[in-house]
Amino acid sequence: MEDGGYAASEVVESQPDPAPENANTEREDGNFSIPSALAAVEAATAEKSSEPTLRPTLALVAADSAYSYPQFVERFKHPSAQSVVNEVRDYVNKFPANLTRPQAARRIYDFLSTMTPRLLKTEAFADQGEELAGDGLEKFVVLKLHKLLFRHAPADIREDERVESQINASRSAKSHLAAMAAVGKFDKKHQETFEAASLELQRIDQYRAPRDKLACFVNAV
Question: pTM here?
Answer without folding.
Answer: 0.63
